[in-house]
Design brief:
alpha+beta; two-stranded parallel ribbon; 19% strand; elongated; binds zinc ion
């Protein structure tokens, strides 16, 4: 059997179900549930690293948090530059 290509989230390990999504749209489900549902073994799947929407949100929030703490640690001279860079990074999102 040729391994089936599937996206799995590097944040929470869920797999994107494109085969038979519950609401006819691809949905992220737990890896174990996914394999049981279709009777897959690990070797049946060719997993591609991806990030599910909730983890992407979480990642974004953490990045913003990092920027805030980074700016807080800078000296006043560096702060202006740090704030500028932080704002520029946020504007790019
Ligand atoms: Zn995830």
């Amino acid at each position: 059997m040729i391994p089936l290509a599937a996206d799995y989230c590097i944040g929470c390990g869920q797999i994107l179900d494109k085969l038979e999504p519950a609401d006819s749209r691809p949905s992220w489900i737990a890896g174990g549930v996914y394999r049981k549902m279709y009777g897959f073994r690990f070797t049946d799947l060719h997993l591609t690293e991806a990030v599910c929407p909730p983890c992407a949100q979480d990642l974004k929030a953490r990045k913003d948090q990092n920027l805030v703490s980074l700016v807080a640690r800078l000296s006043s001279g560096q702060k202006k530059l740090g704030l500028f860079l932080a704002l520029e990074t946020l504007a790019k999102k």
